[in-house]
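Quick one:
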Amino acid sequence: MDRVEDVFTRLRRFPDVEAPNLYAVDAADRLLLDTAEQALAAAGSGEVAVIGDAYGALTLGAATRHDLTGLRVHQDLLTGEAALAGNAKTLGLTDRYTAYGLDAELLTGARVVLLRLPRMLPGLAEIAEAIARYAAEDVVVFAGGRDKYLTPAMNGVLGEFFGTVRAGRGRQKSRVLVVGEPRPAGPSRFPVREHIIEIDGDVVAHGAAFSGARLDIGTRFLLEHLDRMKPDAREAIDLGCGTGILAVALAKTRPHIRVVGTDQSAAAVASARATAAANGVADRVTVVRDDAMSSAADNSADLVLCNPPFHVGAAVHTGSAIKMFAETGRVLRPGGELWTVYNSHLNYRGVVERMVGRTDVIGRNQKFTVTRSVRGLRDVQR
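Output:
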């Protein structure tokens, strides 16, 4: 147990946002490992899958406590993958696990699954469906999270795919559901596809993609200003593209433009690629899994569109948005524009102006503000 605590004290969130109120391990991680103690002790190499591990606490904790090898891991967020890789390297545990997509390679033959419950029910449904479809018949799933994010609806979702769903005792405002007896898998319900009037096209969405196959209200407000966005732009970036609605809308209305959609979510990237294909613009819309445009070259874009998050995981924190703005200031060419929509109470205008350039409020409604920032030559040189 002391060895595991030593592992926990050395875990970092990097390259995700790090701050005094943000942690790389929490009480739900500890409760999950404790609840699954006997099952993990009895599991053999290659029989344990870990899904949704934030920064490596579950994977590296299980590897250390039970000397496990052959752990198979799926993390939707790229920052989580990078943090786990960095922590594993620091601890000398890089040979204990392999990263996979949410697919048969991850789950075939798995007898124990450690799952951090996602907050979005469609994301949970896609995970549960995959486990029921591919894992061993005697698989036991230990699904845990913080009490304030758990809902009775999660039990119902899991009950669609498994015969038993049992809630364990809570501890330190956390709880674990023990799930087993997978039901026979029928046709997959993911990804889903819906027609969106505002883009005169279809949106395709995997379960963990933000807002699913719907048009969220912030993006809808930003779309109202699409025709005013830098008309001579040839290369644009949809930063944090989600299902790709902004990227596709821009490509459909401007035949001359090429758009790169970036998102750190594997589900979002798969969704955006499918959305681009469904709307016949896959030849001009490229989607990459990236952390806030970190792979984009300096001064390489004429236009950036962004509907930034104001949460880092479960915590309300603006660090991710600020990171996006800083990268935009690097990537935009002189005269390039950043169009942003954000919750008005966050008042990002001053931050964006400092990191990108002159910023004007273009639109405001009861909830959201749309701004346009223009990168000047002086801003590039500083």
